[in-house]
């Protein structure tokens, strides 16, 4: 979790010495206490502001429509109602939302994109880091240039190309364009560069070909980078919205996000069924939250890798 | 960047020496090199570079999205789409100018807010006297990994007329507005407190791009403020991490030395932390600026540009014109103007950042 901090802390001299000097010379204990009180106060306020909304979200999903409107702040539903979740689970015969369809589509797309990116990114990253071929600098420059292209500008271009290739309203059209992943390629390239070249040479002397060297010798050594790319892809494609918005119009192809967005911005606008909407939002957050709990370290690392390039 | 250049150069230098000995292997390596990058290159060319060129062509057409834009069915109109966007008086230019105004305020408030909030979070999370910092860091970062759609739905609920935000405001005696239907600009509201309700003559009469100066100086609308709050909340975790990396690079010895020299907390912050954090700040401002110009998802779900077009953004115009009205030429033109704006801003930002550092 705190890989960053821990490593730095280890190199530091014992911290005890200085604060003692400080408190002796300027102010007795109260000052340090004051700093702590303010610090924890800020942390508590931050936790309230950053976690509170999610608690409200989960609580509201167990409320009745009337209770959600009347007592929006309360974290205890009264009465506790599972009506929203019954609709989500499909056990309400009167009203249904194709949640399983959406979830299925989201998983199909997310898993395909993640697998595709792992293969494409590690191959390209290895070539850019290790293999000498004509045009390497050009390819590298192109990958870096991709980072500068603002995603939202690609809305119409993506629709155009999918239309032209006959991939509009298809899984291929939803998945293939998301294989473009400059960040992942650069991440893998950096990871491969950290592996000593001697290993490649040793493998080659032992008679391994380029692919064999890559696959059996070097790739296992960059496992942390592979995990980072996996998580980044999983989160990115699970949360993706605009690409699916322009790549599909068929409701059967809607992902979780697209389904929720259409439901919220259209159908239910009048009736304001917030418990249902928030139950759906909660459901769509659960997979990410689970991954986050176990791998938050990798999330944070990837967050930094994205920007510092 | 520099590191890469040097590496490329040295690879080139060692190349010829090796070639003599193991030319067979080198040939294999060359072939493998292209094979390895081929999937990435194909995907990038087909789904990124080619589409951009296609869109550039479409932005010169009057194309409704039905036939193929390359069949000649769509009329070639040259720069007309750009002209109706930027020059010719009309609904489109009016909308576009409004969206630019909205976004300028959005960017201004959002970037300022996000820098202050994420810096503060980073300072607290980095403070050595507190325990459980990594736990809190995990909490503050959580909104940043949640989907914009889920968060928008949540904020739609929080900012309802009688929603959580207004209930909390009422506890401190503030009568909250009806957030998503209030088109009044906050600067106009502030001015009205001082008795300025209508536009002073000069401001109402002078117009820029078809929009009176009074309208340009409206400030973000109340609805836009809800949107700004959402983005600050959702993105501050990411930027907190950038600041955290910067803060951890400040040598502890330096902090301790200044503390022993008797510098107060504020002085240390002002004269030590801030100057050393300049690079991080420039980076965060640049990234926040770029992403602010692209706001789309939240607008799509929260407001669709309403009320009174005060949350209209260029990206949303580009989408609605294309997929709503079937004017793909116009939509593509908006996208390219937006692209240009972002690139220019990035360059300006880089230049300003570099100037100060030198």
TrEMBL record, chain A:
GO cellular component terms listed in the entry, alphabetical order: plasma membrane
Record-level GO BP terms: transmembrane transport
Transmembrane stretches, start-end: 33-52, 102-126, 138-159, 171-192, 213-234, 278-300
Localization per Swiss-Prot or TrEMBL: Cell membrane
Domain ABC transmembrane type-1: 103-295
Keywords tagged on the record: Cell membrane, Membrane, Transmembrane, Transmembrane helix, Transport
Membrane disposition: Multi-pass membrane protein
InterPro entries: MetI-like (IPR000515), MetI-like_sf (IPR035906)
Family: Belongs to the binding-protein-dependent transport system permease family.
Stated name of the protein: Carbohydrate ABC transporter permease
């Amino acid at each position: 979790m705190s890989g960053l901090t821990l490593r730095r802390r280890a190199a530091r001299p014992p911290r005890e010495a200085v604060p003692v000097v400080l408190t002796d010379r300027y102010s007795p204990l109260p000052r340090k206490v004051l700093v702590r009180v303010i610090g924890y106060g800020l942390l508590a306020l931050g936790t309230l502001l950053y976690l509170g909304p999610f608690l409200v979200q989960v609580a509201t999903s167990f409320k009745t429509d009337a209770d959600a409107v009347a007592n929006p702040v309360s974290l205890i539903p009264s009465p506790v109602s599972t009506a929203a979740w019954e609709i989500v689970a499909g056990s309400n015969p009167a009203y249904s939302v194709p949640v399983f369809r959406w979830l299925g589509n989201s998983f199909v797309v997310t898993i395909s994109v993640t697998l595709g990116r792992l293969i494409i990114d590690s191959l390209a990253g290895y070539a850019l880091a290790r293999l000498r071929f004509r045009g390497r600098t050009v390819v590298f420059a192109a990958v870096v240039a991709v980072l500068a292209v603002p995603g939202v500008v690609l809305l119409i271009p993506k629709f155009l190309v999918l239309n032209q290739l006959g991939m509009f309203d298809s899984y291929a059209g939803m998945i293939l364009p998301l294989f473009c992943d400059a960040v992942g390629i650069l991440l893998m390239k950096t990871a491969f560069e950290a592996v000593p070249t001697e290993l490649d040479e040793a493998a080659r002397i032992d008679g391994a070909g380029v692919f064999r060297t890559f696959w059996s010798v070097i790739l296992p050594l960059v496992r942390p980078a592979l995990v980072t790319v996996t998580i980044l892809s999983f989160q990115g494609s699970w949360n993706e919205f605009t690409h699916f918005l322009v790549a599909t119009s068929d409701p059967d192809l809607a992902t979780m996000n697209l389904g929720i967005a259409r439901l919220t911005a259209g159908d239910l606008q009048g009736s304001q069924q917030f418990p249902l909407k928030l139950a759906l939002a909660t459901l769509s957050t659960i997979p990410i939250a689970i991954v986050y709990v176990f791998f938050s370290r990798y999330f944070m690392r990837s967050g930094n890798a994205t920007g510092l390039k | 960047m520099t590191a890469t250049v040097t590496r490329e150069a040295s690879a080139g230098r060692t190349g010829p020496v090796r070639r003599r000995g193991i030319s067979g292997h080198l040939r294999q390596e060359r072939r493998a090199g292209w094979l390895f990058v081929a999937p990435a290159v194909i995907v990038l060319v087909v789904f990124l570079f080619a589409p951009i060129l296609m869109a550039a062509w479409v932005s010169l057409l009057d194309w409704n999205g039905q036939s193929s834009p390359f069949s000649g069915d769509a009329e070639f109109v040259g720069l007309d789409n750009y002209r109706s966007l930027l020059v010719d008086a009309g609904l489109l230019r009016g909308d576009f100018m409004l969206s630019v105004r909205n976004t300028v305020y959005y960017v201004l408030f959002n970037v300022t807010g996000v820098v202050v909030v994420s810096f503060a979070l980073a300072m607290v999370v980095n403070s050595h006297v507190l325990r459980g910092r990594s736990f809190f860091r995990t909490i503050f970062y959580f909104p940043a990994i949640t989907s914009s759609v889920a968060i928008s739905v949540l904020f739609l609920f929080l900012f309802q007329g009688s929603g959580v935000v207004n209930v909390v405001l009422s506890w401190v005696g503030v009568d909250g507005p009806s957030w998503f239907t209030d088109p009044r600009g906050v600067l106009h509201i502030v001015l009205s407190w001082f008795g300025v309700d209508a536009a002073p003559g000069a401001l109402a009469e002078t117009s820029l791009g078809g929009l009176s100066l009074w309208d340009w100086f409206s400030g973000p609308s109340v609805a836009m403020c809800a949107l700004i709050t959402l983005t600050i909340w959702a993105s501050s975790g990411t930027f907190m991490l950038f600041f955290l990396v910067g803060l951890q690079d400040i040598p502890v010895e330096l902090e301790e030395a200044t503390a022993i020299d008797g510098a107060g907390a504020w002085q240390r912050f002002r004269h030590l932390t801030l100057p050393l954090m300049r690079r991080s700040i420039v980076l965060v401002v640049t990234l926040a600026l770029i992403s602010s110009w692209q706001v789309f998802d939240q607008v799509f779900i929260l407001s669709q540009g309403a009320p009174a077009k005060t949350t209209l953004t260029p990206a949303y115009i580009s989408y609605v014109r294309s997929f709503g009205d079937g004017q793909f030429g116009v939509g593509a033109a908006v996208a390219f103007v937006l692209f240009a704006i972002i690139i220019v801003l990035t360059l300006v930002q880089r230049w300003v950042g570099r100037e100060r550092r030198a």
